[in-house]
Design brief:
Blueprint: H1 22-48, H2 64-71, E1 80-81, E2 83-88, H3 99-111, E3 116-121, H4 122-132, H5 137-145, H6 149-164, E4 166-169, E5 173-175, E6 192-198, E7 214-215, E8 219-222, H7 227-245, H8 257-260, H9 263-280, H10 282-285, E9 303-305, E10 308-311, E11 335-337, E12 373-374
Parallel strand pairs: 1-12, 2-3, 2-4, 6-10
Antiparallel strand pairs: 4-8, 5-11, 6-7, 6-8, 9-10
Keywords: Membrane, Transmembrane, Transmembrane helix
Family: Belongs to the glycosyltransferase 32 family.
Transmembrane segments: 27-46
């Protein structure tokens, strides 16, 4: 996990930078030093191997994916960081949340007291991206260039998990079972955990979904540096900067959110990783056949392929009433999605909660926790 990853948020600052929660603001100020020193050390290492490296050129001696991989190395044997990420446009002192958002966000604290719960404001997210990716300016240039909040919200989840790991979930999701219950012991270890969002067995599926089998990106769990995240961050960065250069980033050109930053490109990145992993695996290479959507059709129990944990469709969409979905009371129902957070519109007033989830004043529980999770 990057040294720049926050360890928790407290009350918002009352200074001119009050859009950044106070502890996160202090964290950002302090970790800039670590990022700068780290960049200098990395430059020194490269110079010893006679490589020319510029912090502003990601493709000079290696691809953007290679650069991200070196800055955020993936440790397959590491633990899942005990960190829950959520985002919303402003702090609770500046916007009146929809009551569903408040109770939904509060559910993550109540069922996962051993996790640190971060609800990051849009402005704080932008600043954090600049800190975490200071060594890869192309990434934050792409983030800054995205013309719609929903595009930035999509991109941020991949960036935060790539750099820091943990669990990301949309602000309008309610957790139904603690995260420790999501992970079957017999499927340990895993590097990336995703749910199936859609499995539409109908001829007109393309009218409703981006892919025949579509992976959920409103709730994701990952160890830092996972290659799927590196791939999607690189893909979005490259596409965004190309469109920026061609003056095609106006909102009118950005109608296909599902393909640009959403579940379409997310599903593609997962399948690309699975196909390459299977090809490189000596145990499967001799009998290699490309991983296709059929592998995940009608999946009703958790499964693992190339260290990617795939949860059945009920786990992230219980109670919807089609595609074989079961009720929210099912043993595999883990997260309920309200499908309203991405609108990011002004919402009615939220009642006072026990926990100020936007400021992140979660009550940290020091009780012993599952060894699979990293503190």
């Amino acid at each position: 996990m990057s040294d720049a990853c926050p360890n928790g948020l407290v009350d918002p600052s009352t200074s001119a930078r009050n859009f950044v929660p106070h502890k996160l603001s202090r964290t950002i100020s302090l970790v800039v030093i670590f990022v700068t020193v780290g960049s200098l050390l990395w430059s020194t290492v490269l110079s010893r191997h006679d490589l020319k490296w510029s912090p502003r050129v990601s493709h000079q001696e290696s691809t953007l994916r290679d650069h991200l991989s070196s800055l955020f190395p993936y440790n397959a044997s590491g633990n899942l960081p005990r960190l829950i990420w959520q985002t919303w446009k402003t702090s609770s002192q500046e916007v009146e949340f929809d009551p569903r958002f408040c109770s939904a966000a509060d559910s993550w604290d109540k069922l996962n007291p051993e996790f640190e719960h971060e609800v990051i404001t849009d402005a704080a997210a932008a600043e954090l991206v600049h800190v975490l990716f200071a060594g890869v300016p192309a990434v934050f240039e792409a983030y800054d260039a995205l013309p719609k909040p929903v595009l930035k919200a999509d991109f941020f989840r991949y960036l935060a998990l790539l750099a820091c790991g943990g669990v990301y979930s949309d602000i309008d999701t309610t957790v139904l079972k603690s995260i420790s219950h999501w992970i079957p012991i017999e499927l340990e270890p895993f590097g990336l955990g995703v749910g199936i969002e859609a499995d539409p067995d109908r001829p007109d599926w393309h009218d409703w979904y981006a892919r025949r089998i579509q992976f959920c990106q409103w709730t994701i769990m990952s160890k830092p540096g996972h290659p799927v995240l590196g791939d999607i961050v690189a893909s979005i960065t490259e596409k965004t900067l190309k469109r920026k250069a061609q003056n095609e980033l106006q909102p009118a050109f950005m109608k296909t959110v599902m393909e640009f930053t959403g579940p379409g490109i997310w599903t593609d990145s997962i399948f690309n990783y699975l196909k390459i992993s299977q090809l490189l695996d000596e145990s499967t290479a001799s009998n290699f056949s490309a991983v296709s959507w059929q592998v995940f059709a009608n999946v009703r129990e958790p499964m693992k392929l190339s260290a990617v944990l795939v949860l059945p469709i009920t786990s992230s969409s219980p109670g919807v009433g089609h595609m074989g979905l079961k009720s929210s009371g099912d043993r595999l129902a883990f997260v309920s999605h309200g499908f309203s957070g991405n609108s990011r519109d002004t919402a009615p007033k939220c009642p006072r909660m026990n926990t100020d989830v936007n400021a992140g004043t979660w009550k940290h529980d020091e009780r012993s926790v599952d060894a699979r999770f990293e503190s």
